[in-house]
Amino acid sequence: MMINARKLFRDISDLPTIPAIVSKVITLLDSQESTPDDIADLILSDQVLAARVIRVVNSPLYRSSSEINSVKRALLYLGFKSVREMILTSYFIEGLNQKEQPFDMKTFWMHSFSVGAISRRIGNMVGYVDIEKAYLVGIIHDIGKVFLGHYCREQYGQMLAGISNTSYTTYEAEYEYFGTTHSEVGLCLAQRWNFPSPYCDVIFHHHTPEMATEDPLLTSIVTLADFFCLSHVAAGTLAQASIPGQSEECAWNTLKQLSNKPIASGLESFLSDLSDAYEDLSREIDQIFNIMIT
Q1: Which domains does the chain have, with CATH numbers?
Q2: pTM for the predicted model, two decimal places
């Protein structure tokens, strides 16, 4: 399946890219030795990036009591991890939204943001050490679908039409049509963008969490968030829900073993606890979607 995924990349010269300035900023944000002045100076060297940070920090999502016009103040207000999350998400969306697709991109992004928000929620519930990372990886878990939809547009459109009103998932159909899936293709794209290895592993194994090696807990969080969102939000043929299967059971077992907090005794109870919080989360998802997409 990886061989087939790499074949799809072989002759493509117009893959979306992430600007070098973004990689530099993310490196500084992840460094233990960086100061707000260091990061602010680097962000200010790119007017588009600086304006984006200011726009987001003043949005209703972050509920600042007064307008923030300084990049340094934005960093201190949001925190380094939140800025990392916001910058990567916005540039990731910008790069992929330019590609024509056989499916509705609004539906795709709403699902992606939902998985991100639920991943962060689950991260809180199990005491995961970096909930911002859980949020970000939740958003980008399906990037392989955007590649397949654009560069194999006719075939992917036929595939989606073929599984409409069936019990087939896109993951199963992709394997039959292409001999690979959005998981392998997503890994290739993530590696091309030099994503950190835990991010790559989640993208690769969010349908096979039992095979995750870098951060099994993070992968299991995203697997369960993905399933939860598919069972609560209509996503059309682009991402269809099914009853919990082997992947979800494996993810649940990992969650129980590695959770740093007491959690529900069974998967059904755990998903029910998430449902209780979903109405509030859905409002947050709508806000994030409107800020990042518009």
Answers
A1: 2-10+100-293 (1.10.3210.10), 17-98 (no CATH)
A2: 0.84
